[in-house]
Amino acid sequence: MLPDPSLITNGLVEAFTLSNLLFILAGVAIGQIVGATPGLSIIMALAIAIPLTFGFDTLTAIAFLISVNKGGTIGGAVPSILINVPGTPESAATALDGHPMAKKGRPLKAMKYALYYSVTGDFLSDVVLILVAAPLAVVALKMGPIEITALMILAFTVISGLVGESLLKGLTAAALGFLCASIGLDPGTATPRFTFGMLELYDGLELTALSIGTLAMSEILYNIVGARKGKPSAAPIRVSGGTRSDRTVTFREYLANRYVALRAFVLGTSIGAIPGLGSTTAGFLSYSVTKQAARDPEAFGTGDPRGIAASETANSAVVGANLIPLLTLGIPGNIAAALLVSAFMIHGVQPGPLLFEEQGNLIYGMFGAMLIANLCNLAVGQVGMRFWAMIVSAPASVVFSGAMLLCFTGSYVIAGGVFGIYVMIGSAVLGYLMRAFGLSIVAFIVAFILTPELEGAIVSSRLITGDDPWAILSHPIALALLALSVVSIIYLGPWRRTPGAQEDPEKT
């Protein structure tokens, strides 16, 4: 079942059409701008952008969204370095050494360090994704409904335990996702559930409108409420001036931290391949490991380029790796991957191992687009760093009002009417309350996406086993996955604490 070489070639060639190249370039530029704008997030941008791709070709739409995600990881480093305020959560660790370097009169040098190591980590993780995704998909196809049911249970327990403040809160958020996904027709009996006589609910809640509400609109509301506290804004550092060495990074300076970058890439790729762990975790873990391994740990926090290399390489390596569980198992690795599920479904494509058999051109075209996006990231970042620095001071009133307009427009378009706006508003209120009470929006969205597949697997399993619970004993892989679920509950149970951890919107 390994892909035909001609299939790979055709897919890669499709990525190099003029329209795809232009949308990849536009996606990277938009991602960098959004990442560089305090108050906005890449998750918000992705949620809003998905409805805009409704009329696109499938490959063009996926390439555009992936490019936005990639661009955001680089753009987020700009405010982290200039004003010590992370533009995206994954750039928080970059500020620890990036801002001190900028205060020493080398802001452009710090931003270019971030750019080069971010592109390095992103590119290497894409290579890993391309090499391992197809073989893992072949293994995944050997799994039957019983094994898939056990795998889903494991995914829910792991994600609920890792992304929330506690396993209990994670499971509570997942239960809310189950409840919302139950609206519509029962997959086994085709009887309506929680529709309250409304025909619009017979097909369930629209995933994109729900995502825009819980992720984008709720974050806007949360930021508006936070802005009323009147926190003073930091003054950005001027990027002009200084000597040539203060504005450039030589190839020798880049290679000086090659071992730091290699270790960060391994950590970031490993974390990205595990569902539920995000870029922020990778960035801080890599920074901490690098600092502990250094002979002079006291140099970190004073503008050491090793800190930037460790953080940016690791958090960018997650971008490609988090698609591994999505493409091989149909399980989103993080919230960005969950939003890509929405984009796939809009275009009539079901993520999972069958993609390599049924949509080979699309998958390898997507891989080609990811590699092109890395080159565009490097080119756009190299040219645009000075311009993105100006965006740091964008007024919040303009940013939030424009984002809210896009939220309403996107929900109306994708749902085909006003009902999509109602779903978005209700989801925004729910998302705001979940943020306020510390419930994981990632667990909620993942549960909402995976519930239909879980229900289908359970129905098929019951038919295969004749409702005999002891039949699972003849399925050792399912037993092993259920055992891992029990272990994860024990390991990630109520006694797990993460005091003082950096809050990650990917995890909230």
Automatic annotation (TrEMBL):
Keywords: Membrane, Transmembrane, Transmembrane helix. InterPro entries: DUF112_TM (IPR002823). The chain crosses the membrane at residues 12-34, 40-66, 113-138, 144-163, 170-187, 207-225, 326-349, 361-380, 470-492. Residues 21-445 form the DUF112 domain. Pfam families: TctA. This is Tripartite tricarboxylate transporter permease.
